[in-house]
Specification:
mainly beta, 14 strands, 12% helix, 8-stranded antiparallel beta sheet, 3-stranded antiparallel beta sheet, 50% strand, 2 domains, Outer Surface Protein A, domain 3, Fusion Protein Consisting Of Minor Coat Protein, Glycine Rich Linker, Tola, And A His Tag, Chain: A, Domain 2
């Protein structure tokens, strides 16, 4: 099985036997030009290689597993090894809002001012705001920006409550805490 993107780059391929993936390869591109992540899995030999590249194609890091034992290697810009560390899990976890006190929904109910849109002239309907941000390794949020523009102060209100939110649970990659981008939707419903 092979999948291509709209410009003809292979983005996903796999070799199957008896409906089971034996070898898979996923690639991702920036501007349909440079590879920035390649994930290779070999189920028959229980191996995996996950490699990240910068926008110029230089290797940044590589995680290699044989069975449950893995090595995480970071590279300098000149290609030399900066550090290497053992990792013991193939599991990845997305960054998420802390579950204490009811989690994200309860936080919204306590802090979001849903009347802000009506005060700014919205008359009815529904709109979803999407905010992109980075959850840093320590759980703080940075680089917040609205990806939508429904207006009436909606994006500003979601940014306001994100700026005052408690620390999030950071993402982890192969058991190591990493900073990660997150896109958070918030839907407003206005009954006119």
């Amino acid at each position: 099985m092979i999948k291509w993107d709209s410009t003809g780059n292979i983005i996903d391929s796999g070799y199957y036997q008896n409906d089971q993936l034996l070898f898979g390869l996923k690639k991702r591109y920036i501007n349909h030009k440079w590879l920035y992540n390649k994930l290779e899995t070999d189920s028959a030999n229980n191996t995996m290689r996950d490699t990240d590249y910068d926008s110029l194609g230089n290797k940044l890091r590589e995680i290699v597993f044989a069975g449950s034992n893995g090595i995480w290697t970071e590279y300098n810009k000149d290609g030399t090894v900066e550090s290497a560390d053992s990792v013991f899990t193939r599991e990845n976890r997305d960054a998420k809002f802390p579950p204490q006190n009811g989690g994200w929904r309860a936080y919204l109910e306590r802090n979001l001012d849903g009347r802000v849109l009506v005060r700014n002239g919205a008359t009815g309907g529904q709109g979803t705001v999407i905010i992109q941000f980075v959850v840093e390794k320590d759980g703080t949020l940075s680089n917040m920006k609205a990806l939508t523009s429904i207006g009436y102060g909606a994006e500003e209100e979601v940014l306001r409550i994100l700026k005052k939110s408690p620390k999030w649970i950071p993402a982890s990659r192969y058991g190591k805490i990493v900073k990660a981008y997150r896109k958070q939707p918030v839907t407003f419903q206005i009954r006119g």
